Amino acid sequence: MKWNLLILVVLMGLSCSSQKAKDNSKTDDTKTESSVASNNSSDTKSSKDQGQTEDSLPVRKGEVNMQFQINGLDAKGKTVDLIGMYMDKKYRADSVTIQSGGKFTIKKDELFPDGFYYMVLPGDIVVKLLLDEDQTFKFTANADDIDHTAKVDGSVTMKLFYDDFNFKKDIDRSYVPIARKMGKISPKDPDFKATYKQFLDISNKYEDRNKWLQKNYPDNFFTKFKIGGKNPILKYPVTKDGELDVKKQVADYRDHFWDDFDFSVTGLINTPAFPNKLKRYFNELVPQNQDSIIKYTDFLIDLAKGNDEYYKVITNWIALKYEPGKTKLMDGEAVYSHVILKYFTPEKAKWLDNVSLNTLRKRAGEMTQSLLGKKAGNVTARGYGGKVYTLYDIKKPVVIVYIYSPDCSHCEEETPKLIQFYNKWKNKGVEIFSIAANTNEADWHGFHDRFNLPWIDVFDASNASWYPKYFVDITPEMYVLDKNKKIFAKNLHVNQLETIMQRINK
Asked: Count of alpha carbons within 13 Å of 58, Cβ hemisphere only?
């Protein structure tokens, strides 16, 4: 990642939603259901429709009496929804009808789960809520500027939440241009020290506020939310020649990213604090290779040990993010199988029934036979024309195992491209060993004849000779083997092979 991108997001705090905003009730494709086997819609739904469990959204007895008055809001009779969060999913927690004078009240005898909520009122006016166990309060604000005119009586958490908007208002205005300048300036620049001092001075204002919160309200939910969501202060290590040491900078930032997050506070899962940090950690700070992702997955789960809900959401999120067929990571199977086999056990994954758990573990186990760096499985099968071929008998230093299905449209697109590649590289030490999968002899022959496949092409009606050795999520699948028949690359498109050829066997 480029270092000038890192600076722009440091210490900006949590931006829950803009003052004027559309109801962004649809979320991205990151799923947070109670099981990786689930595949529910991401639309805003009720908590039951959303697939949450009682553990995810616990029922708590208590009085809810939240009285709102939004001055200048002319929307009598309009119904608005209270939207809650579970990770980055949103669900409809309640609905309320607006009375005259911009007044409305939410009353219940069961507390809402701790977390972040919002309502989008007519005119795209957003009212944000941070709720803990104190859900009896009065809220007054002006419709044209909710964040900076809000007055809260009765909830310390809500009062601190809205006080923070006013605290940040002036600081953020001065911080942004300094952050942008820091993103462009080099440590060798004469203005660097002065600019960095300005940056630290502003950063320290945030830090002083955080220290004040920790001293005066150490156990308050807003304090946990604020401190847990903040970013480390960015450091600027330099190399011997005075340039920014980007690798060291990112490593230090990553190492301190979770320092102040309190994993004992389950309610943070229901706020932007945790899902935003989780996504940023793995999308921007963790190197995108299977070994690093596995390392930092284990590190994070160890930090969260003792809290079953964090254990569940982290393991589910990682498994879904790197699930084969959905990730761009070359060896997503390594990450997925590691998480499933290590963490989805009968003792730990208690949210899953035995059938679902065994299905997941069986699939993950199949993946482990063909991970990057492993010795590829040998295959012996009958080729087109009746001759029997054995993969290990191929003497060329590079072998591409190409697994296709004759009725696969993507196979029909990729195969002509692969033929062009093969014609270019067949005299440069490359052989292709293709396997027709999940088909019958007639369709195999038809595909072979249609494309006049110029390489070794085999078929095994039972799939037994190759399936236990090469995991295939979707076809076509390609494995590139090096001179030692180890898996050098996988999950490729033909247009990526040229790059692989430049790196293999060097």
From this structure: 12
pTM summary value = 0.83
| Phi, psi values for residue 139, rounded to 5° | -125, 125
CB 254 within 8 A of CB 292: no
> Which CATH architecture best describes the domain 45-160?
Sandwich (2.60)
Residue 486 or 43, more confident: 486
- Please check whether the two domains, 45-160 and 380-503, share a CATH topology: no
- Give the distance between the most distant pair of CA atoms in the chain: 86
- Looking at residue 133, its amino acid is E
pLDDT value at 290 more than 70: yes
Measuring CA to CA, which residue among 399, 402, 424 is closest to residue 484?
399
Residues contacting residue 362 through CB under 8 Å, at least 6 positions apart: none
Question: By the 8 A CB rule, do 128 and 116 touch?
Answer: yes
Specify the fold of 380-503. Answer: Glutaredoxin (3.40.30)
- Local structure of 8: helix, strand or coil: helix
**CA pair distance 337, 333, nearest whole angstrom:** 6
My answer on whether omega of the bond before 58 falls inside 30° of 0, hence cis, is no
Q: Whose structure tokens read 């080729």?
A: 383
Domain ranges of the chain: 45-160, 380-503
